[in-house]
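User:
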Amino acid sequence: MGSSVGVSLLFTDLVGSTELSTLLGADAADALRRVHFRLLRAPLGRFGGREVKNLGDGIMAVFAGIGSALDAAVAIQQAFHAYNATSDGHPLTVRVGVSTGDCVEEYGDYFGEPVIQAARLCAAAAGGQILAPEVVRFLAPRGRHEFSPIGDLDVKGIPEPVPAVEVGWRPIGSNASVAVTFPDRLGTHHATMFVGREAELDVLRHAWKEVVAG
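Assistant: Predicted structure:
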């Protein structure tokens, strides 16, 4: 029998992950996924998050408070923005969903409406975006994060529409808001550019350096 606990949850998803193998090949795509997980896990550790499970193309994590979950979400987007700005390889972008509330904990996993909200809002987000239910805006530490209402979203598994907000973030060192959105095809590169496989090899080499450095 599970116990009821109050937690904050964070879900992530790598945008266009299915296309990685098609465009880059399995080895290069796997190397980039390892880079992707390294970029995700550093903010989790920094803000006290616990990874509940690896979802293949993202993670589910829990935090003791909503402020830490939001801090981690912002830090994740900043990390991917910094990576894309300095990398000469294939861009990586993620979407993030955050929620909070009472959940049932069983054997280290969590169940309940906040879990569904975070997972579904993550799926509804664009690349580079953080979505959360509106209640998060009222529970978050005052003045630490910026929120923009985006209206009611129909969330599968929840009977009533969920009033949602976008959590704002800025690149490290910038004073301007940013919306880092990439199409689901992961950029405008056409698959034929990989016919010679030099581009694939360059991506793989760069990704391997990132993994080793991490």
